[in-house]
Amino acid sequence: STSALPSSTGIGVGLVGFGLFFIFFGTLLYFDTVLLAFGNILFLSGLVFIIGFRRTFTFFFQRPKLKGTSFFLGGVLIVLMRWPLLGMLLEGYGFIILFRDALQDFPANQDLCLLQLLQKVGDSSSMV
């Protein structure tokens, strides 16, 4: 049988999927350190399988993205040191900085901004 994806890409997608599942599940279980750490490791290794080691390295260590990379990888390290809440906050901030350009192009984000603008206009015009 022929596959549309190379085998390493399929493995990477599976690793990223399981990584996101463990991160989500670890968050639901009140920031369980082991699940979050395992999710982080799976997510990062899956990224390497999908786009390759060299492209992953060059993505994270571009000059304009060093701030986001340091927060993201620092958050991963803090989670591994068993401070899950602080680590996830740092990871989230780093993730937002790293993927700021991609998140601005996301259509749902534009709809959300429009919805917030409409709510502000509605709130300011109320007489109560």
What would you note in describing this structure?
The protein is mainly α. Helices cover 80% and strands 0% of the residues. It is built from 7 helices and no strands. Helix 2 (33-51) packs across helix 3. It is globular, with a radius of gyration of 18 Å. It starts with 6 loop residues before the first helix and ends with a helix.
The main β sheet shows up as: none
Q: What proportion of the residues form beta strands (DSSP E)?
A: under 5%
Average predicted local confidence, pLDDT: 86
Distance between the termini: 66 Å
Unreliably modeled segments: none
What is the overall number of helices? 7
SSE topology string: HHHHHHH
Radius of gyration: 18 Å
Q: Which descriptor suits the 3D outline?
A: globular
Structural class: mainly alpha
| Oligomeric organization of the protein chains | single chain
Number of strands: 0
Share of residues in helices:
over 70%
Identify the notable features of this structure and list them briefly.
7 helices, mainly alpha, globular, single chain, 128 residues
Write the layout of secondary structure elements.
Blueprint: H1 7-28, H2 33-51, H3 53-60, H4 66-80, H5 84-98, H6 100-104, H7 107-124
Helix pairs in contact: 1-2, 2-3, 4-5
Outline of this structure?
This protein is mainly alpha-helical.
